[in-house]
Amino acid sequence: MKKYNLPLFSVLLLFDWSLAAEFSPVIETTKGPVQGLVLTTIRESKKYHSYRGIPYGKPPVGYLRFSAPVEVDPWTEVFDATKDGPICPQIYNETFVGQEDCLNLNVYTPQIQENLLSSVVDRVKLTARNILLSLRFLKSLSKKEKGKEETSLASKFYYGPDYLIEEDIVVVTVNYRLGALGFLALQHQNATGNAGLKDQNLGLRWVRDNIAKFGGDPNKVTIAGVGAGSVSVGYHILSEKSEGLFRSSILMNGVPLHTFGFITPEDTVRKAYEFAKELGSTATNDDELLKFYYQVDLESLTRTVTNSTQMDFSLKPTLENPNYGPDWFITKCVLQLFGNHNRGPYIIGYNNDETTAFAEELENIRYYINKSVPLISEFKRGKPEKLDIEKDVTNASIYKIIKELDFVAPVDFTQKLLTNFNDTIYYYRYDFGYNKSLHDIIDHFDIDGETRADEIKMIFYSELFQVNPKANNSMTLLQRRMTRLWTNFVKYGNPTPDGTNDTLLNIVWPDSRNSAELTMKRYNLPLFFVFLLFDWSLAAEFSPVIETTKGPVKGLVLTSIRESKKYHSYRGIPYGKPPVGYLRFRAPVEVDPWTEVFNATKDGPICPQIYKEAFVGQEDCLNLDVYTPQDIVVVTVNYRLGALGFLALQHENATGNAGLKDQNLGLRWVRDNIAKFGGDPNKVTIVGESAGSVSVGYHILSEKSKGLFRSSIAMSGVPLCVWGFTTPKNAARKAYEFAKKLGSTATNVNDLLEFYYQVDVKNLTRTITESTQIDISLKPTLENPNYGPDWFITECSLKRYYSGNYNHGPHMLGYTKDEAIAFAGSIDDIRESVNETVAFVSKLLIENMKELDLGKKTSNVSIDKVIKAVSEIMFMAPIDYTQKLMSKFNDPIYYYRYDFAYNKSLHKIIDHVDIDGAAHADELEMIFYSDLFQVNPKANNNMTLLQRRMTRLWTNFVKYGNPTPNDTNDALLNVVWPDSKKSGEMLWLNNDLSVHNRYKTLIMDVVESNLKFFGGVINGCNINWNKI
């Protein structure tokens, strides 16, 4: 097996990532306050607000398992809506995923208007946006099980709203129950069926009651769906329970008249008994059967019900007996309800080659044909033998037969029925063949045509789709046209309200009542509003199952944003036991093994922290991510922060540095497993920025990390930074102070630790996070080795550096030119930083303060001068001194200064600090991609040139231990980055890459002098553990 180099990005992690996040306003919903993120669209870099995972229903568990949903209970604390909520239980290819507590939804809105945040809304002056509610439900062919899977993933990762947001509408997506949980029907008052449709209905009611606060108009709701989600839209059109909840609808590739869209009450009860028997039931009546289904294992139930036939679902919508109570959704047959339905306008249509989505093999298609013959006979449509289905069917005729029988005919008949009642109906056929259609790039079906779900990439963005939305070709032209058509329909009830005056479209899409049929060739398709993701496994390619030392894991195949290269993503892999109870402050313990394939397709929980003002995370957070392409493997690790990561009581169960020990366990996991992911455990590079960079420094110094990495990159932080270390005495003092704030009266360490075990994690995290502008409340410290073998560092940093007794290079380290800008949200923040800096300088016994001009009259000090001084004292000087100490031992050290000022630097677009310069963390957007960064990586400008250069330098270092191994033969770089050695030569990273002598200032010289003479006291070098 080929070995790949591995940079471990675990220490970059979430210790200071709020620097790269802008939060949306807190919205008071009818159930409680929620806060999300401000993101930017992929094509036009427009900002929008994302609120994800908002609960709308109580967990449907216990006796609610098959019942109609119940509204969620209210809450008072701000709900963290910055990430996707849990999905409902389902089989995602062969892996069981999801949980029953899954009734949540997402809201994406272009703008939150200020008047919506006040207690009184002026509805006359308010211009509210139209809303798209999408109900999505597709069938996916499992490559090994030869069956379809229902999948509901209301996730931005799969259904990015970017294109729709750019047309100025609000998008809502809803998670709802599937399979048995969503459609088991026993004709019993507690399981009448259609629970999934009722979940959707409750989501619609949530929209009616709340969407105005998000900038939407509850009277302008469009519901949309594709596949079985389109069938759901059809049932909302027909059900009186959804009356008044939407204005218009979009049905893509599915209607209730499809055979896969309905089952009779008799057949659904029969199915329920059959599945129960497979699961071990001996029930002979409905009460016993329902009791069995309440108690059956969720995964077993989901797997059994998912074993459906090729072109059908095991359990589907059905009719309900109204005598069982008021919670029914539909009680009359579909054909009887046309005419007494919720009126249009509508968009309805299909794809030219629907069947291709099910055609992994020709045998599968022939199966469909055999299934269709009795179907035709059942509906008495004539003599099926005339179609020549059973004998001598050619490959070409197969697709045509199935497409028309099972897909086109029901849609077309529904259009005809609706026209009888003078509803406005826009009818389409999607007929765009493309060499990167979804069935080509995801399902790998080498069959030309336009199959089910191919049109999704015209409306939604996902990196799975391998689409460059900024390209200029026939595909992106159709993408823009279809987005315009669908969003026009959402806004105006008409996809071409301006006729041919819209130069992008240059066509009038007529109401289909005026003609028998309209084929929309080259552009047509809709979708919007409470976008219910019911079927996305069709658009997911899974990575191979990897057998780790703890158990098998399965991830996704994704594509990179710049060059569309495929890579494998395994996320949320557990590496440590949940650090709860008496493990709360202790060194981590390896996770227990597992046998079932672990679902590594989504991020794992993050560790508890305050994300600006919102509490996020959970204690069961010791997980990591692996991204493996063909060149470099990237690993990121979640570890404990704040009190959970750095509380130190000099007690055997809380010695401190738990977060560093989590990282160390992550490194050991890499050593033991990374070869299976294509990485070389002997070529590991650890990387960190800011506090993560300080962590890298401690791994360099600790013998516990010996042999776990080959090289290191420290960006803007070292253990000698004042905010990177605290003495054991100060750590214990802080612990008592915080405990007192939390209500403790403890007078000894045992009582104090017992108090910390019991304290609520939210209150603990909030209290600890109240830190100063440029400092951290709890930090790494020294540990007493007498408390046991779990210590991480027992000797002060300076002693380690002086002796050379640390893990040797090569190393890369550096800083940004204007670090302190990141802490300068206002003039007051600047002054606070100055006051802190003055206090710190006093600690170092610097006498010549007059020359620094940072004293009493801070208002007379220029902002630039303050930023320069704070940056040099708190960052540059300790980093520079660390470089000098390490250069004595002949380690290759590549030293840099990041000096690139840019109008879209992170401190400007995320922290909104309108000061020019290169701030703390600004360089991250040169190495990592995020839609938060508002960067088009495919553009051609100074920013993207530096982005490519820095990525090349960093990855060269990871591969070879040298950022410029080819000297000047690399045309992209055209520079040699020298080993800095004792001279301190630096590479300045700007529009040009240039080598300079060590950067020196008076302030840096003064700080270095005091580190030499007094740093031992500050760093705890005088501690004698035998006397403690």
From TrEMBL:
The keyword Disulfide bond applies. It holds the Pfam family COesterase. It comes from the Eukaryota. Keywords: Disulfide bond, Glycoprotein, Hydrolase, Serine esterase, Signal. Residues 1-20 form the signal peptide. Residues 24-512, 631-1000 form the Carboxylesterase type B domain. Belongs to the type-B carboxylesterase/lipase family. This is Carboxylesterase type B domain-containing protein.
